[in-house]
Write a structure and sequence with these properties.
This protein has 15 helices and 13 strands. The protein is α/β, with parallel strands linked by helices. Strands 3-2-1-4-5-6-7 form a seven-stranded parallel sheet, sandwiched between helices. Strands 10-9-8-11-12-13 form a six-stranded parallel sheet, with helices on both faces.
């Protein structure tokens, strides 16, 4: 075998955390050993992200799903695997695993690795799919969580054998940090003067990301500190029942925050925007291991986040940031106020953030572990 052909499968080609991880791995695999391609089911006209894959010579395959348990989609997956001589499929999220199972384990004999990204997604699986999922997962070649909490949740929910499960933590690119535009140019784009403080959140507009909690906390903060802007990077998806972008925009208008809250939409220059921020905030109801937060830590930002799975795995309370109670607006406001009003504390916590990422969450470590897994599966 000259090269190992890897097919990554994601539910949609949208720049979320799991899709970003797939892009990072697929574009950085050793091209002397691996060919990488990606299959996806839904597409929301994100040409910028699509072109990023093309620029890295990662081939894309669109598989249409017409309804639940679409057999034609399973056949489509099988054709992609057969026509491209795929050796290993890495399915990200439960639905990707289900549609990949037929193609890998029934229509052909291929290795199938399942990567799950959040406890929230595991918990919402219905009883019917819990039983079926458990049967399928114990036939897979590897079941993986992106944190120990996620891996343990998979074991509990689906009764997966320990020998079939591993954890590979998300990683972020430490080599590309601080290689973007000049900070002053970025601030000028948004009309920010030098003494303006910036709180930033990077997350697509979905209910689970809980933007409304941040907005309520920021509204109270704005009464205490007048020189603070809030940057929200991301977008909602049309047709997504979880989309909260309109709710966010309505709240900003109704509460007179239009001059203070900046909605940037989807951006390809997130590192540049992080470089002008003073504090990163993530108020999700649940997370796996949020890449956006790790990216913020990699540029030396202190973090404020909700005390929920995924976020509390990374934030060391009063070491590199603050964990706040979900729904406690006063707690959130006080944490932001404490950091924004104390430059020395911001610097101290930011340095610790950078140290944590350097030691435990580098992208090179993450990619190396995926490569080792793929090579081990082929050898076995």
């Amino acid at each position: 075998m000259n090269k190992i052909n890897i097919l990554f499968v994601v539910p949609q080609l949208e720049k979320g955390g799991s899709e970003t991880l797939v892009y990072n791995i697929a574009s950085r695999l050793d091209r002397e050993r691996f060919n990488a391609s990606v299959a996806y089911f839904h597409y929301y006209n994100n040409e910028m992200f699509k072109n990023a894959f093309h620029n890295q010579n990662v081939r894309l395959h669109h598989v249409q799903i017409k309804g639940s348990a679409d057999y034609s989609a399973m056949l489509g997956m099988a054709r992609i695997i057969r026509d491209n001589d795929i050796h290993i499929v890495n399915a990200h999220h439960f639905i990707s695993m289900v549609y990949s199972y037929y193609a890998c384990k029934i229509a052909s004999r291929r290795r199938l690795v399942y990567t799950e990204h959040s406890i929230w997604e595991i918990n919402r699986v219905s009883f019917k799919w819990k039983v079926l999922g458990g049967l399928l997962m114990n036939q897979l070649d590897c079941v993986m969580g992106i944190s120990e909490d996620v891996t343990n949740a998979l074991r509990r929910k689906f009764h997966v054998r320990d020998k079939n499960t591993i954890t590979i933590r998300n990683g972020v690119d430490l080599e590309g940090v601080n290689q973007g535009r000049d900070i002053k140019a970025v601030r000028n784009e948004f009309g920010l003067n030098d003494d303006m403080k910036i709180v930033i959140m990077v997350a697509n507009f979905r209910k689970i990301k809980n933007h409304m909690f941040l907005l309520r906390g920021y509204k109270d903060l704005n009464k205490k500190l007048k020189n603070v802007k809030l940057l929200l990077i991301g977008q909602g998806t049309d047709g997504d029942p979880e989309n909260t972008e309109n709710d966010v925009r309505d709240y900003v208008v109704e509460n007179g925050l239009c001059e203070n809250v900046i909605l940037t939409g989807q951006r390809s220059d997130v590192p540049d925007l992080l470089s002008i921020a003073d504090v990163f905030c993530l108020t999700s109801q649940s997370e796996g291991l949020p890449i956006s937060m790790l990216e913020a830590m990699s540029v030396g930002l202190p973090i404020v986040g909700t005390n929920v799975p995924g976020i509390r795995d990374v934030i060391r309370h009063r070491k590199n940031g603050f964990l706040v109670n979900l729904g406690d607006h006063e707690d959130l406001t006080n944490a932001l106020y404490q950091l924004l009003s104390d430059e020395q504390l911001r610097r101290q916590y930011g340095q610790m953030s950078k140290r944590i990422v350097n030691e435990s969450y580098s992208l090179s470590q993450c990619v190396a572990r995926y490569q080792d897994l793929f090579l081990r599966l082929i050898t076995n």
